[in-house]
Amino acid sequence: MEIRDLPEGPPLGLGGLRFEAAEWRLPEGTQLVLYTDGLIENRQRDVGVGLNVLCEALSGAGIDPEETCETVLERVLPARPVDDAALLIAITRAFPRERIAEWDVPAFPAEVPALRAEVFAKLVEWHLEETAFATELILSELVTNAIRYGAPPVHLRLLRDTKLVMEVSDGSSTSPHLRYATDTDEGGRGIYLVAQFAERWGTRFTPNGKIVWAEQSAPSVPVLPVLVSAA
């Protein structure tokens, strides 16, 4: 069992604020436990004592996330909590390499059409041709934004799972913003189009820049089992 040091950021579940991503390589079957301070800290118990109680509860729990949640809440959460508490437990699984496609993006907008063609070929290989129109539009906007307003290196990644996820990373920490262009504006509609064609989109920050991601529905992708539980 290991307690990881995380970059400071907004509380778990609070959206709309910037946060810095942290990355680790974890073996398959690793159990992740995420929680808010309301679970381990109160007026009668400081953080250090609460962490010890949490670790003891986890050491006696099984591997099923739902059962682990019940065990932790029973042993750690006070009978009358004075603060809201959130607990999320997940078990990692290996993501098949054949469901990942990656490209290093040249720093020239003129190269984007060739990149679209390569992405389309990958969608055909994955039997996701029905997503091609929206995927190519999202790709054009995110990659062009990264080239024009970001910083090298620019990298594109597609993830084929229960959803189709596109990630475009670059070396700048400047985040794109959704705005509504007027009829006379020549630009400014890119992120608005991404928001219209993607189910969800957002930005996560890394020590070396940012990743702008967009998620689309992909009905033909088979569902893989995910072990996760929240309380």
UniProtKB/TrEMBL annotation:
Q: Which Pfam families match?
A: HATPase_c_2 (PF13581), SpoIIE (PF07228)
In what residue span(s) does the Histidine kinase/HSP90-like ATPase domain sit?
106-213
Provide the PPM-type phosphatase domain boundaries.
3-90
In terms of InterPro entries, this protein maps to: Anti-sigma-factor_SerPK (IPR050267), HATPase_C_sf (IPR036890), HATPase_dom (IPR003594), PPM-type-like_dom_sf (IPR036457), PPM-type_phosphatase-like_dom (IPR001932)
Q: Which UniProt keywords apply?
A: Kinase, Serine/threonine-protein kinase, Transferase
Name this polypeptide is given: Uncharacterized protein
- Source organism phylogeny: Bacteria, Bacillati, Actinomycetota, Actinomycetes, Kitasatosporales
